[in-house]
Amino acid sequence: MATATERSSGFSSTEHLRIVVRLAALVLWLFFCIILYQTGRFLERNPWPRFFLRGLTWIAGIEVHAEKTQTHAGAFLLANHVSWMDIPVIASATGAAFVAHDGLAANPFMRWLCAMNDTVFIARHDRGSVTGQVSQIREALRENGALAIFPEGTTGNGLELLPFKSSLLSALVPPPTGICVRPILLDYGLEASSIAWVGNEPGIDNFLRILARSEPVKVTLHFLPALTEDTLRNRKVMASHAYTAIDARLRAAQDQRVTL
After folding, report:
1. Using DSSP, how many helices (H) and how many strands (E) does the chain show?
2. Tell me: the pLDDT tens digits for 53-72?
């Protein structure tokens, strides 16, 4: 079976054309939304980043099926991580900002783009800065609507979860008033492993590989029950319960597909 990198090199002429058209559409969409973003800069919560990310999913050929649920201010979302697509999928459905590793901030364009959606950058490998990172997250929870993190810390293959890291959940101990901690599952179905960003595949290759597809990428966003008060007593218990809930729902979805 070809590796992800091998699949992303050697596009056909039709796929090249599809990539060019979608990239052009994304650039035009970005410029249009930047203009709109300026008009909402002084609002308490600028609506245009969510609008942009929703359009990005459509242009990239991503079909999002989200269960109807209300995501209110103070919602803290813990999600599995499969691809760069997870961010526009979650943001377009919930309006969430994200906690991201500071590697993205090293790229000026990505830092600027992420900042418009109120991204909180953290030093993932700097244990000495955890206290400061906790303060950043608590401040973001007070100022933003929903905030989302990927506790795996990296992308997986979409078929099984990687262990959850609990350090950033220290921001929720004790839980701030009004906080709702909710696990969510991104289920890419039978094509999860084919679209996952794993191994040594460069991010740009994964991005172009998705844009080259003729068939849409279908993802279902499952909102799982919020963690109860007794599971919020410490970060490791939170991580364990969120992992169990997401893993159980993923396995149930996989079993359902096998029986169909």
Report:
1. 9, 7
2. 999 999 999 999 987 666 66
